[in-house]
Amino acid sequence: MEMTLKTNGEQEQKSKSAKLILLFAMVSMTMMFAGLTSAFVVSKSRADWLKDFQIPIAFFYSTAVIIACSVAFYLAKKAIQKNNRSATSAYLLATLVLGILFVALQITGFGQIIESGYYPTGQGSSITTTFLYVIALMHLLHVAGGLISLLIIIYNHFKQKYNNTQTLGIELGAMYWHFLDLLWVLLFLFLYFFK
């Protein structure tokens, strides 16, 4: 009995530490994007700023997809808490597919920007589109990290490392995906309304 209490106490301490580290990482990422959006606001007063630039339609679709991604991860977390392994598997795999679709739609959006004649750098670029590329690419890098962590979570899930008493990996993954989701929605709204 004493051994079980010690193990549960250690597990709880490990869980709190992991969540705190992830929280610090998310605060750091938020600060980085706050810096980028602040630079965007300051640069908006430049004479060469594009006033009529339109956000690519693929970015609208990718926003819906990343919200669905977050919902699927939430459902995966709820399913493992009920020890429903098959539903957890389905929701984790759905999250992975939606995450990959988000990346594909973002790349499609970059293609649409280029088709409109705007490039990230060089003669065909503008400060407006350069900022858009930088902000979206930085978010995509964080999504890539999320996809890698999701693959690890899926691997661990199929190795039976999660159950209704051990959900830490899925909880951390869900926290990160919800953060990515909220971050993209806020960035998208910022880019859409603050042209």
Automatic annotation (TrEMBL):
GO biological process: aerobic electron transport chain
Membrane topology according to the record: Multi-pass membrane protein
PROSITE patterns per the UniProt record, alphabetical: COX3
GO CC field: plasma membrane
Transmembrane intervals: 20-41, 53-76, 88-111, 131-155, 176-194
Primary localization: membrane
Gene3D superfamilies: Cytochrome c oxidase, subunit III, four-helix bundle
A Pfam family assignment: COX3
Subcellular location as annotated: Cell membrane; Membrane
SUPFAM superfamilies membership: Cytochrome c oxidase subunit III-like (SSF81452)
MF annotations from Gene Ontology: cytochrome-c oxidase activity
Keywords: Membrane, Transmembrane, Transmembrane helix
Domain Heme-copper oxidase subunit III family profile: 1-195
Family designation: Belongs to the cytochrome c oxidase subunit 3 family.
Record-linked PANTHER family: CYTOCHROME C OXIDASE (PTHR11403:SF10), CYTOCHROME C OXIDASE SUBUNIT III (PTHR11403)
Name by which UniProt lists this protein: Cytochrome c oxidase subunit 3
Organism, as annotated: Flavobacterium potami
